[in-house]
Each structure stands twice: as structure tokens, then as C-alpha cells.
Input
Amino acid sequence: MTRPWIVSVIDDDEPVRNALVMALQAFGYTTATYVDADDFLARGREGCGVVVSDVRMPGTNGIELTRILRTEDGNTPVILLTGHADAALLAEAMSAGADALLSKPVALKDMMAEITRTAAFYGLSS
Amino acid sequence: MPKIRNQNVYVTRATAARREAESTTDDQVRESRLDRIAQDAVLAESPPQGIDPARAGLAPLATDHDANQDHPPPPDVIALMLADAMPQMLWSARADGFPDYFNAHWYAVTGVPEGSSDGSGWNDVLHVDDRKRAGALWRSSVETGNPFEIEFRLRYQAQDYRWTLGRARPIRDEAGSILRWVGTCTDIENVKRGTAANARLTSELNQSTALLHTVVEVVPGPIYAKDRQGRILFANKAALDLIGKTFAEIEHRPDIAIFGNDNQAETVRENDRRAMAEGTTREIEEIIDERDTGPRLFLSTKAPFFESDAMVAGLVSLSIDITERQELAKELLHVSKRTAMGDMAAAIAHEINQPLAAISLYLEAAGALLAIEGEREPVLRSLALAKDQCHRAGEIIKRVRSFVSGSEVLKCPENLTMLVDEACNLALIGSRESGITTTFEHKQRDTAVFADRVQIEQVIMNLVRNAMDAMGEMRASKIHITTEDGVNGMAMITVSDTGPGISAEVVERLYEPFVSAKGKRGMGVGLSICRTIVEDHGGKIWAEPGASRGTSFHFTLPICEAQ
Output
């Protein structure tokens, strides 16, 4: 199953990034990977599809990345992953304009459901 | 002008002076006065028996005949010349107390006209407060014949008053009757001043001694002094309480007789001996048995004192009971560990969460790959990666465990590079996410230090976490960690950050418990513990401003030479 959009994976933790990519690819997603948000902002903006980003990263963090994307363009789906989700961070993520905040370790099933739902919301064709 | 021509007439020296004045001066005032004195002073045709005329201030009167024959000046003239030449105020009075002669020095000193001091005139040059007393005492001496002696203030050249000692003795004839009085006045101003200064110094010394005594007695720690042979010179109350003896029981007794010969006492004696042999003040920890509470840990300062020839004369020892302080330090070590753990708990949770997240994803991927592709290779790769992440999680847990356990001090040779790297692995958790770049520079890779691994890891962790805290949310934050072999067989570890730096005021007190550069965020026990640990290892810890900004913390550890 191939989709006309990709999933942009942003995580500074290489094993986590690789695992995400491997799992998503196993389920038929096409992925692009970025070592952090600044890497993504530098070279991944065009045709990024659904952005799946870690929150805590060196440089620009996931929340700031979401704000930047929302300020410049309202049409990029953003799903944030965090190792320590709490109500405050959820509120911050929502207020920044994130479409979802998922807690790590995340069940791939849940993540894929969220990716699919968000892609549909933004009118990305399946 | 009357002339006295009788041979063997005895006159006072004043008369002789008259004669000299007749021949040598045109000072009419002096001449007439001397004439008057000469007339008054004619005593007898022959000298009183038993009185040495010269000693009594009398001299045989020279005859015209003698004088005309170019003989040397007669003795009375010599005596008078001597009296006037004396750098001492001399005076003489009649038996009835009427002063009728003052020598040249008297007039030079007082500056009064010649003759003006005769009779009661002398009283005018005394300080007004001393006149009555001096007059009364003089009258009393004249009446009783007792020697006259008084200290009074004499006016010098109409200016200053100076303390003067006036003394007079009667000259008696054989029958004991007073013939004349002869007296002196001696300047004792400097003596008086010296006496006053001495009194002031003595008073100050007494005060200082009393103050020192009070200080020494209220100091809660034992203080004692001993001479080079170990004989006790001094012991304060705390010292006497410690050994349960009175000072009388130990004064000047050798220390060995007082403290016995057990190992503890011998150690203390050896410390004293070494301080005296080296001639320098030493600070040393000593264990001393207290009668009621058993062994106590003291921090003792041993200060030798010296004789004038720079030889060590003995030693003063001052000890402070640091048993509680040491226990508090141990307690603080636990508090610090708990605090550090609290601070790090979130970071560790995050760190463990990362491999768990990866494991979960790899396993799900493996399942998906099995279902969809049915091929073994991608599945096995996914599982292998999941296994790696299990190891990663296990390593983190192992490091945490080794940190929280093992409170026993166990010093052994440790590779410094590995020690620092491993401590930093744990300490730097979460640093990357906070945007902190960390660099290492191990100038020598095989240096071994003599250290308790857990404790030194804690020091490194503390310094690294402090550096991270200092930089907070700053951009382009950097931590640079170096190890290098330094001087005196010590290795130096440096943790530098690019934070805002620490104020000079805080730097000075940084190692005191509960002083923190982190404001309200820090407990301020970390560096205090670090210092305790580092010093316990024989090293030093200090902070200084970083090369361009931030702060560099250095500490040293003894290098372990290869066997």
C-alpha cells in the first residue's frame, strides 16, 4: 500500500528514529527522517506530509516547531511524541497548534490511527 | 665693697664665688648679692671640728698673700666653679631655711634673674599647685632637721613645667646643730613620663591578658601549651575537663605522665613533636577519648612558638570537636544524593523511556513485517535492534543502581578517563535535548587515580549538573570536560560551562553548606559535599571564571603511580 504523502519523522534519538521509520515502513508508509527540528526546517518543508516529531530536542523543540509551522502555514499536520506527557505539556502542544500529542512508548497501532486521522483531516488523499 | 681679710676665716662657697666675681665680672647685681651672702655666711674663726670643709660645702678662704703669689686658685673658688659648672641644679640655704644660693644651672634652667629665688623667691617658679605642699614640707624639714625630698613641677624658662625631684640634706656641726642646708633639683620629667607610660602599658597588658584568658577559657575546645620537653605550661578549662584533672595536677609535668602511653596519646604526642620539629603550624585530625562520651574526632591546630633565637620553645595546641560536623557532613552526603536523584529522576525516566519507545516500535514493526512480508531478515533485524535497546535501558538502570548503592568509601586505582566518561554518561542525561553540546579532552588516557569511584562520580555529576543548570535555556550552551596530569602528582579534572558565571561574592562562599549560585533552585549542599569528598581524597576543588565566559570548576586527585 503506497500513499501519495509521506511521514516526516523528526527525533534526535537515533534508535527511536530508526525504530519509527522501520515500523512505519513495515506498515507501508514512505518516510523522511530528520535529526532535529532545525534539520527539518532547513530541508524538509516541501511535501513533508504528516510531521511526526519528538518534543524535547536540542535547538528548536517540537512545540516551537509546531508554532513556526502554524505561523507560516496552517496546512501541515503535526503529531508530537513525548516521553513525559502531562496536562501542562498537552495544553502547550494544543495551544501551539499540534494535532495530537502521543506519549512514548507509543503503540504503533495508535500512532498509525492518529496519522491516518490527521491526514484525512487535512485532506491528504489516501 | 667690704673685704674679708682674716686668715683662716671659713666661708661658704658662695663667698668664694663673691671673690671670684670681684676679680672676673662687672655684674654689679651678682657682686652685691655675693657680698651679702659672704657676710651672712661667716661662720667662725676656725672650721667646725669633725667636718670636712670641702665636703660640707666650705672651703678655706684663700688669703691675699696666697693669691698674690700666683698659686693655683684656692679650693673654695674651685668648689664654686664646680658648683656652677655642674649640669645639675644646686642650692644652699641657711640653717633657718632661708635659701641664699642657687647655682648657675638653676638660673639657666629657670630663666629667673639671679637672686630672685633667694628666701621664699624659689617658690615662685614652682607650679602653683605644688607651692603650698613644697613650702610646708621645707618648713617641716627645717624644723625637724629631716632630709627634704619632694617631687614638684618646676617652671622651665617661663614655659613648660617639668617634674623635678628636690632634695636637701642638713650639714651639722659636731654637736649636731645644723650649719646649713645643701640641696639639688633633678629633672625627672622623663622618668615620670616613663612611669606613667609603664603604668599605662601594664594596665593594657593586664587587660589584654584578662581578655586572652577569657577567650581561651570560653573556647569550647581544649587548648594547651607545652614546652619542647613536653612539659605542660598551660591548659584551659576544656582541656582540663577532657582529661579530668586540675591544672595544679599537670603543671610542668611531662605529657606522658598525664596522658598515659596508649596509642591515642602517643599519636597526639607524635603530632606535637612533628609540629615542633618542623617549626610550622599544622592542622590535623585527632581522635581523643572523652571521659563521658567516648572517642571524639578533633581538628587540632598545632602552632609552635619560638624563643628569641628562633629556636622552637614549645607548642600551643587548639582542638575543635568536629565529631558532629563530620556526622552532619555524612548526613548532607545522603541529602545531596537524594536531591541529586530527585533532580535527575525526570531525566532518567526520559532516558529509559527512549529505548522502551524504540523497543515497542521495533517489536511492532517485527510483527507487522512477519504478517505482511513473511520474510525473516527484516524481522530479525528489527528484533536485534529491539534487543540493543533493551541493553541500552539495562545500562542506564545499572548506572543508576551503582550510584545509589555503595556508600562505603572504597579507594582504589581507577582509570581517570573511564571514571569521568562513565560519570558523565549519567550526568549528561537530558543535556542534548536541552541543546547543550558536551566535549571531552583527555590529555592523558592511561592516568590512574586513587579514588572511591562512587564518590568521585558523584563529584563529577554534581559539577556537570551544576553546569547544565547554570546554562538553563541559554542558546549555544557548551560543557567542556578535561582531564590532565597536573603538578605534584595530582591529576586535574575541569568542568567548564558557558553559563552566566558566578558572582565573586558567591564564589568565596560556594563551598559552605546551603550557599547556592542557583538562587532559590539550589539547596547549596552539592559543592559543600564535593569539597568534603575531594579533600578526603587529598585533592582540592576550586572555581574560576571561564576563558571567555561561564565558570570552570577544577578539582584534583592523587595520581596512582604504576606498580
